[in-house]
Amino acid sequence: MQLIAKSGDPAVIRLNPLDNVLIARQPLPQGLRLEAEAITVRQPIPSGHKLATVRVEQGQPLRRYGQIIGFASQAIDAGDHVHVHNVQMGDFARDYAFGVDTRSQPGSAAQFQGIVRADGRVATRNYIGILTSVNCSATVARAVADHFRRDIHPEALADYPNIDGVVALTHGAGCAVDPSGEALGLLRRTLAGYAVHPNFAAVLIIGLGCETNQIESLLETQGLQASAQLRAFTIQGIGGTSKTIAAGIEQVRSLLAEANQVRRQPVSAQHLVVGLQCGGSDGYSGITANPALGNAVDRLVAAGGTAILSETPEIYGAEHLLTRRAVSREVGEKLVARIRWWEDYCQRMNAELNNNPSAGNKAGGLTTILEKSLGAVAKAGSSNLVDVYQYAEAVRAQGLVFMDTPGYDPVSATGQVAGGANLIAFTTGRGSAYGCAPAPSIKLATNNRVFEHQQEDMDVNCGGIADGSTSIEERGAYIFEQMLRIASGARSKSEQHGYGQNEFVPWQIGAVT
After folding, report:
1. What pLDDT, in 10s, does the model give residues 436-487?
2. For 334, phi and psi rounded to 5 degrees?
3. Which of 112, 156, 219, 473 is deepest in the core (most CB within 10 A)?
């Protein structure tokens, strides 16, 4: 999928010679003549939005990236604004062609300053975590963590500079569900992934005591055992709220000295596991930040690292670009099976996958889920797809993998971190603000405007790709450098603002009774 084929007019971008739409680099006024394209703009076109290059009859496909992004719901003339008012979804065949585009991938060497745990796992951060088995213990967990917040009680961790913090990751589930059902299984798998995450030096699990998600069953079903680094207790067992808060504070205090003993050391980038996210996407996402991140992913994979592409509804209509890179038919079919699950799920819930583009996405120029998906898969670069995982499943393979998650960023990233991601790379065109403790999150702006307007939240500007002042390759190299730098301990913008605790959102699926 060619990403940028230079248009003859600097006001617009042609992404592929097969396209019948152009992308506006800047707001285009009605009546503007694009001489190089032999088109007159028929309506005002906002920056990042599309205009037709030729007349497209009703029912005919519209193409961007050389791929179908929708069908004309009415006749569209050359120069017309192409968007939700004249574009609709439609069925069309996709050639999955399993594995035809796999390629040999030369290796390279890269390092970062990591924290090596006693069992050999490598961390990018050093937190103490507090998890909850149920929503009922959330207030207690937060109170324990707040006691150690540096912005509230700076003295609490003053003697422990190597500890990044104490974080409480709470949720709204854990009871009134089928004890053997899918919903509880997903929650338990997610909690277990966090309980053993290398970015936690130790973890407390706090429950109420009478919830469906009994801590003993949680540990047993997930193959976990209580230890000095994994401790659990309940409010009912301790004897009340204030007593449990005091007990939790004392438990954390007893963990601080050992947790502070860590030292960073050079480790191979093969220990880096990066979750790929895009949120608040716009018409530039698939042109700038996403392909630049994809270039960084190729560099990461070449160095032996792992990248997790997710958000299954947001690859819908573009999944064939991934199956063609699957290392085996089995891997490709696993991905298609997840697409079919989502089609069935939406049908059962009386929903549509095309509901996914948000109001902000549409305001930024994205019209259909097909268009959004084609831009989203660019985050995966050109590396081979080596495996497909269920939500929050432990990622064992190295290279580019896919994890089935919803498109909602906090839910998706929560699954990735549960699967082992120790860094999140997040592209945004509208200015999403997000963090993901215990994994640092890097924000990549798709356009100059959002980077300049929201610099306090953005780590990397990819807007120069659209105006030609930089390239996908240059930004990709820079993003990879930033991955290594932040994995080595440099704080991302979201960490500086304290994001991360509230963004723990396990996928809730199924009935609550």
Report:
1. 999 999 999 999 999 999 999 999 999 999 999 999 999 999 999 999 999 9
2. -60, -40
3. 112
Q: Which amino acid is at 259?
A: A
Alpha carbon distance 325, 130 (integer Å): 39
User: What residues have CB less than 8 Å from 338, skipping those under 6 apart?
Assistant: 312, 388, 402, 404
pTM value surpassing 0.90: yes
Closest among 483, 394, 397, 402 to 444, alpha carbons compared: 483
The C-alpha atoms of residue 77 and residue 141 are separated, in whole angstroms, by: 59
The two three-digit tokens of residue 261, written as one number? 């003993």
Q: pLDDT tens digits for 349-398?
A: 888 877 667 888 999 999 999 999 999 999 999 999 999 999 999 999 99
Q: How many other CB atoms are found less than 10 A from the CB of residue 32?
A: 19
Cβ contact 4:15 at 8 Å: yes
Mean of pLDDT values over 339-348: 92
For residues 294 and 378, the answer to whether their CB atoms sit within 8 Å is: yes
Give the pLDDT band of residue 67 (cuts 50, 70, 90): very high
Q: How many whole angstroms separate alpha carbon 315 and alpha carbon 375?
A: 9
d(CA 252, CA 258): 11
- Show the CA angle centred on residue 402, arms to residues 399 and 405, nearest 5°: 150
The number of C-alpha atoms within 13 Å of 194 and in the hemisphere containing its C-beta is 32
Give the separation between CA 453 and CA 29, rounded to whole angstroms: 24
φ and ψ at 289, to 5 degrees?
Answer: -65, -40
Q: What are phi and psi of 172, to 5 degrees?
A: -105, 20
What 86-92 contacts at long range (C-beta under 8 Å, 24+ apart), as own/partner pairs, is 87/62, 87/367, 87/368, 88/368, 89/352, 89/354, 89/368, 89/369, 89/370, 90/59, 90/61, 92/61, 92/68
Q: Which of 62, 64, 107 is nearest to 87 (CA)?
A: 62
Q: In this prediction, what percent of the chain has a pLDDT beyond 70? A: 97
Q: Report, in angstroms and rounded to the nearest whole number, the Rg of the chain calculated over CA atoms.
A: 24
Distance spanning both ends of the chain, measured CA to CA: 47
Inter-residue contact 451 to 435 (CB < 8 Å): no
Q: Pull the structure tokens for residue 118.
A: 């006693």
Our separate counts of H helices and E strands in the chain read 15, 23
Count other Cβ atoms within 10 Å, centred on residue 80: 23
Beta bridge partners of 307: 274, 400
Burial of 414 (0-12, 13-18, 19+ CB in 10 A): buried
Q: By three-state DSSP, how is residue 230 classified? A: strand
SS3 of 269-333: the string is HHHCEEEEEECCCCCCCCCCHHHHHHHHHHHHHHCCCEEEECCHHHCCCCHHHHHCCECCHHHHH
